[in-house]
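Q: what does this look like with manganese (II) ion bound?
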Amino acid sequence: MSGPVSSVDTPPEQREPDSPAPPCAEVFDDREAKVGNITVRRALPWRGRRTVGAWCFADHMGPEQVDDDNGGLDIGPHPHIGLHTVTWLVDGALLHRDSLGSEQEIRPGQLNLMTAGHGVVHAEEMVRTYRGALQGVQLWVAQPESTRDGAAAFEHHAELPAADLDNGSAVVLIGSLAGATSNARRDTEIVGAEITVRRGGAVVPIRADFEHALVVIDGEVVVGESVVRPGQLGYVGMGRDELPLSSQDGARLLLLGGVPFGDPIVMWWNFVARTKEEMAQARTQWATEDERFGSVDTALARIPAPPAL
Ligand code: MN
């Protein structure tokens, strides 16, 4: 999954609403977008909610059936700067390749974490023999000033720590939750976890100095009086140390959180930066096949940058 964003999705103005008073959620409806041939539901960013901690992008892809007629997802080589890509599969399999020479198949329950830094290129393709459901979430994390111009990197985590919750469970992708800590790299104070809420509801212990949001994958959860459904973003703000999630029939969701990201970011296409000038330079360097981005060993065609900023 790759999730190029357009300037329509992410206007450059900064307009952050105040955190809601607990316990409630501010719910942002999803928008559909196309990534390759697949329809995705974009939960983040929003005009009024551009970041949650350093999390700056969330696409929920599928579920979709991959068969002989529907080949699923093939995203040709495209560049990134200034962000980490976090790939989380619910169903299916994908093959990641990048300009560092990485070639890594990912399955549900595993984490692919790519750091773009100054620049990286990657491609995502189907595992050709795979038939069945494909569903996942593609996330981006904005890098802080200290690493955003640094080296690119790639990590695959085949196993992640799990924790029991009150009437639920968690798999920790990044950061710490309920006593479990992931080994995955993080450049700022963030958490990302998949939460399974059993019938009736669960309570999730969280950090009061983090803001948090929910991206529901299956089922519905109720926070205060707000219902959060698949594809939506339920923003729950800061200042509480536990998050009660009601769910009549149970649910699965991603919990994203972190210390509010201090730097004003600019997002355009596949780039996270601080100024339009940086964007324009990266765009030109991709268009002219500058050595900044390198190349990926794949049969898929390179994706051209959109024409204008
Ligand atoms: Mn990508």
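The pocket of manganese (II) ion is lined by residues 2, 78, 80, 85, 122, 270 (CB under 6 Å). The helical segments are 276-287.
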